[in-house]
Amino acid sequence: MASIKASIGTERYKVEIKSPTGNVVIADEPVESGGQNKGFSPKELLASALGACTCGTVRMYADRKAWDLESVAADVEVINEAGHTKLIRKLQLTGNLNAEQQARLLAVANACPIHKILTNTIVIETVLV
Predict the structure, then answer these.
(1) Cα–Cα distances in Å, from 51 out to 29, 47, 70, 112?
(2) Which has the closest alpha carbon to 72: 60, 84, 81?
(3) Does 67 score more than 90 pLDDT?
(4) Is the dihedral angle over the CA atoms 40, 42, 44, 47 positive or is it negative?
(5) Is 111 found in the same domain as 71?
(6) Are residues 49 and 104 in the same domain?
(7) Same domain for 56 and 114?
(8) Same-domain status, 112 and 96
(9) What is the DSSP letter of 61?
């Protein structure tokens, strides 16, 4: 189970996000939205989770297979449209890979844990403590 603690003080839109292991990330809004642009926006953090998980999962699989994958790059865009949200993920695989290996790595990308979370039914339960 993943768990974080997010908190905000009086500084407008600046949110400090902490992991149980002590890692800290700052989320903020761009200046044009009233923030100070001190960190990723919440939508950028969502896109980042998918991009990071995709790259790491593809890298791990290629390493396990000893394939000649030099690098993986993922560009993820979050688009809000009427009634739904679309995530567009563009994946770039660099290395000496044949078409079959590339197709397999695409399938692996589509099976990364964050991709699975985002394509499942999501329930958000909020309670006051």
Answers:
(1) 20, 6, 17, 10
(2) 60
(3) yes
(4) positive
(5) yes
(6) yes
(7) yes
(8) yes
(9) H
The encoded tokens of residue 10 equal 């009086």
Domain, as residue range, for 25: 1-39
Within 10 angstroms of residue 69's Cβ, the number of other Cβ atoms is 20
Q: How many CA atoms lie within 13 A of 65 on its CB side?
A: 15
Strand 24-27: give its sheet, edge to edge: 5-8, 15-18, 24-27
Do 115 and 52 lie in one domain? The reply is: yes
5-35 confidence digits (pLDDT tens)? 999 999 999 999 999 999 999 999 999 999 9
The structure's pTM equals: 0.92
Which residues, other chains included, contact 15 with Cβ-Cβ below 8 Å and sequence gap of 6+? 6, 7, 8, 26, 27, 28, 39
CATH number, domain with residue 104: 3.30.300.20
